Amino acid sequence: MGGLGRLRRAAGRLGGRSGGRALILLYHRVAKLRTDPWGLAVTPGRFAEHIEVLRERANPVQLRELARALDDGGLPDRSVVVTFDDGYFDNLLNAKPLLERHEVPATVFIASGFIGQEREFWWDELDRLLLQPGTLPERVQLSVDGKTYDWELGETAEYTKEDFQSQRGWKAWAESQTPRQQLYTELYDLLRPLDAGERRRKVAEVRAWRIDGAGRRPRHRPLSVKEIGRLQEGGLVEVGAHTVNHPLLSELSTAVQRREIRQSKARLEEIVGYGVSSFAYPYGKSADYASETVDVVRRAGFACACSTVTGVVRRSSDPFQLPRVWVRNCSGERLATQLDRWFEG
Ligand SMILES: [Zn+2]
Fold it and tell me: pLDDT tens-digit profile of 142-187?
């Protein structure tokens, strides 16, 4: 627990020179990916640069220190919290060694229903089935909620390695350039609000479209129970809850939201053997959860919760809707400039 001495030495007030601001950084994956339509991954090389910058130009603290400081004010100047959402295996494989080397604490928010699953998260599986080279039927169909959707892929039914090379940088928030990209975006929007069982069935239908199978990608999987144990070993990485099925909470009844939130907490506590005190809303924009959700989280016994609303944390921030800053796959230098802007801007 080498980091703690340093934390205490640096302890001041949430106030100080950074003008009452602290930052919670949002990561998902540390991996080198061929495609990354949602910009979830930072490469291990870039992540190493980020961690060095955080060590040199900021004060990395635990999320619980930050949450406590909203109450009593004791926090280093330029405090930064590192968080990861979802619970990818690469958090253990690629992120933890770097966090350890520089004694940077982190919180990993895990969607407990995916633990130990061999399959990829559904949004990654869509990427594998639709945005990797290979062949789909020229025309595909899917029925969702009683409505049938039709897509004509035409000549993009065959996705060659050359096409792939020129299109693999596409991001899902940009306009679709090809029928395949459009298919990906529309399927993502159709599947996102479904309940977990229905979504699994629909992804299985999409899987059956792939004429040539589309090989597995074992490193894209979620963490297993054993790996979560290794991840939190040493106390530097804290485990937080992220629901069971990663649903769009705003679509669910209060009772189902309560189940999603409480069961994920209970399951993770069973695995790690301590009280799980932090939570992150899936998707995390304010439209993705309801105001009652915040209440459900508070009553479930969490100390704080993170959204994905962009912003800095201030003394006045709601500890159950802490804003975060999504870190892209940028250079360390660029991150350093962004930090200055967030802290001083
Ligand atoms: Zn998530």
Answer: 999 999 999 999 989 999 999 999 999 999 999 999 999 999 999 9
3-class SS of residue 281: coil
Q: How far apart are CA 90 and CA 183, in angstroms?
A: 28
Tokens linked to 268: 């993770």
Burial of residue 51 (number of CB atoms within 10 Å: 0-12, 13-18, 19+): buried
Cα of 207 from ligand 1 centre, angstroms: 22
Distance 8 CA to ligand 1 centre (A): 31
d(CA 61, CA 141): 49
What is the Å distance from ligand 1's center to 168 Cα?
A: 23
- Give distance in angstroms: CA of 34 to centre of ligand 1: 20
Phi and psi angles of residue 306, each rounded to the nearest 5 degrees, phi first: -110, 140
User: Could you give the dihedral angle defined by the CA atoms of residues 158, 162, 166 and 168, in that order, rounded to the nearest 10 degrees?
Assistant: 60
Q: How far is the CA of 283 from the centre of ligand 1 (A)?
A: 5
Q: State the distance from the centre of ligand 1 to the C-alpha of 139, rounded, in angstroms.
A: 31
User: What does the pLDDT look like over 302-315, one tens digit per residue?
Assistant: 999 999 999 999 98
Long-range contact set of residues 15-20: C-beta below 8 Å, sequence gap at least 24: 15/73, 15/315, 16/76, 16/77, 17/77, 17/78, 18/77, 18/78, 18/79, 18/343, 18/344, 19/343, 19/344, 20/314, 20/315
Single pTM value for the model: 0.93
